[in-house]
Design goal:
10 strands; alpha/beta; binds iron/sulfur cluster
């Protein structure tokens, strides 16, 4: 039996995510995620458009959970995130959904935005493993997570697939109502990397273990996206993969925001990719043409390798605390 870190009373005083609402989810009270105690699933299907090492030939077995504790104003899945629709399922039924996706040829089980349901999802994973689930489990996340909650996923999740949305707290406040997003996501990522370490692929190029961080470029915000890349690469180097996405679509964005009501331009995306190249990112996926591993050229390897290794040998959590002074203050 693997140790659990989540308070067993989470249903009556929910503090599963950084919102720490403290609501009684058994008693009709709703926190920021707008979800009760029962798992609610919006969709379960084979998805062919994830990163190639997740999609493979069979497709990724995505399970979309209803609700979201972050709630970005430009959410690309806004109907699901708002808590609309979906079906309530028991842990046993959820285990059955996982097994059904495996039966249909899924390369993995891809848990999309499950932060507000981690304890029942863990139960369902244990049930499905004991009933024959063999494929890897991917945890697809907004990045706004608590390390203690993530610890319950240790040895249960094989690949973490978090977003890293902002470095600027003002932007995080304006678009997600979460000025603490940068440091919170940094600590969450540190925990994910601690659990999975460097990426491991099988002979078919499918990721069996590791972390891929997604960066969705927002229109008009190339500078902040460059800062995200700087942080990710200086902290984790080649230990993680970065998926640099240009697919932003203005659905549900507030009409009064002129930036969010357009798509990302080619020039903006090119600037971000040029920045990735200039800082030496090699392990990346881009969304134009083929995946980008071959086209990313190392620029610092020879002279910087020793320094970089020393840097990487320190824990991701220590580096997150260095980067975000507010975390240092909390520690003291
Ligand atoms: S999971 Fe939902 S209810 Fe619980 S703390 Fe987070 S937002 Fe609040």
């Amino acid at each position: 039996m693997i140790e659990r870190h989540i308070d067993e009373n989470w249903r009556i005083r929910c503090r599963l995510c950084p919102r720490k609402c403290g609501v009684n989810r058994m008693n009709g009270e709703y926190g920021r995620c707008r979800m009760g105690e029962k798992v609610r699933v919006s969709r379960a299907s084979l998805h062919m458009w994830e990163e190639p090492c997740i999609t493979g030939e069979g497709g990724s077995g995505t399970v979309f959970f209803t609700g979201c504790s972050l709630g970005c104003v430009y959410c690309q899945n806004h109907e699901i995130a708002k808590g609309e629709g979906g079906l309530e399922v028991s842990e046993e039924e959820l285990a059955g959904i996982f097994l059904d996706l495996q039966e249909r040829g899924a390369e993995n089980i891809n848990l999309v935005t499950a932060a507000h349901f981690v304890p029942p999802v863990v139960d369902a994973l244990e049930r499905s493993r004991s009933r024959g689930l063999r494929i890897p489990v991917v945890y697809n996340s907004s990045g706004y997570e608590l390390p203690d909650t993530l610890r319950d996923l240790e040895q249960r999740v094989d690949v973490f697939l978090p977003d890293f949305k902002y470095m600027d707290p003002d932007l995080a406040q304006r678009y997600s109502g979460a000025p603490d997003y940068p440091q919170t996501a940094a600590l969450a990522l540190a925990e994910m990397v601690r659990q999975r370490g460097r990426c491991v692929f099988d002979e078919r190029g499918m990721m069996r273990s590791g972390v891929i961080v997604r960066l969705l470029l927002l229109p008009g915000h190339v500078r902040d996206a460059c800062r995200v890349l700087d942080y990710l690469h200086s902290t984790y180097g080649d230990d993680i993969y970065i998926s640099i996405m240009n697919q932003y679509t203005p659905v549900g964005a507030p009409k009064e925001d002129p930036l969010l009501n357009r798509r990302v331009t080619e020039r903006e995306y090119d600037r971000l990719i040029s920045h990735a190249l200039s800082i030496g990112i090699e392990n990346a996926f881009i969304q134009e043409g083929e995946t980008a591993e071959e086209s990313f050229i190392p620029s610092f390897r020879d002279e910087g390798e020793t320094q970089l290794r020393e840097f990487l040998n320190r824990s991701g959590e220590a580096r997150a605390r260095e980067q975000f002074p507010v975390l240092k203050e909390e520690e003291e």
